[in-house]
Amino acid sequence: QKEVEQNSGPLSVPEGAIASLNCTYSDRGSQSFFWYRQYSGKSPELIMFIYSNGDKEDGRFTAQLNKASQYVSLLIRDSQPSDSATYLCAVNRSGNNRLAFGKGNQVVVIP
Amino acid sequence: GAVVSQHPSRVICKSGTSVKIECRSLDFQATTMFWYRQFPKQSLMLMATSNEGSKATYEQGVEKDKFLINHASLTLSTLTVTSAHPEDSSFYICSAHDRGRQETQYFGPGTRLLVL
Fold it and tell me: Do A97 and B46 touch (CB under 8 A)?
């Protein structure tokens, strides 16, 4: 089992709709969870981090964490064409600052 | 805040030469920096963890003698790809851990290396 899994293929959403991304992780000791956005040819930029179970909202983004089920999700409300990118889920490996990344989910927002 | 720079942004070199990439945290001190490599259409793969004033910790399968890492100060880490070969062509990205912002890593803009 991979450390961090993002299994769904490219996601196409119409402008203004909600994009939903999921991520599962294998290390139960993980404490910190991150969502990064990566535009083509660019490096990742941090969108949100979450440490506690439940929801965390920041503008149009909501991260959801369920440690018992070992999944973390990201919702993008009112999707805009500028949200078209690859979204990377990252999990802090227990006991150190090293991050394990999922392979990413590509989101395409259709005007 | 939390700006990380990398230099150069792009480099083309001949096979067998060495290439040095610099990573700087511009507005914070980074006791720990990380070096990643990303091939097209793939996710980031951690190569090594660079700690200021000590030896880097390499991930399994990463040759420490080929990828030399130096973290001489709290704001600078360098990665040297020695005797580069075409298969080393990739997107190299560093990140810096801001100890003032718990466990958050900020990424540099990346260096695209092409070995001919």
Answer: no
Q: Per-residue pLDDT tens for A22-33?
A: 999 999 888 899
* Distance (Å, whole) CA A3 – CA B110: 24
- Residue B112 pLDDT more than 90? yes
Q: Say yes or no for a CB contact (<8 Å) between A99 and B106.
A: no
> What distance lies between CA A64 and its chain's CA centroid?
9
Asked if A46's CB is within 8 angstroms of B109's CB, the reply is: no
Tokens, residue A87: 């979204």
Residue B102 pLDDT exceeds 70: no
Distance of alpha carbon A3 from alpha carbon A101, whole angstroms: 8
Amino acid letter at A97?
N
State whether residue A12 is helix, strand or coil: strand
Q: Work out the minimum CA distance from A47 to partner chain B, whole angstroms.
A: 11
pLDDT for A39: 95
Q: What's A43-107 look like in SS3?
A: CCEEEEEECCCEEEEECCEEEEEECCCCEEEEEECCCCHHHCEEEEEEEECCCCCCEEECCCEEE
pLDDT band of residue A109 (cuts 50, 70, 90) is very high
Whether residue A48 contacts residue A61, with contact meaning beta carbons closer than 8 Å, is answered with yes
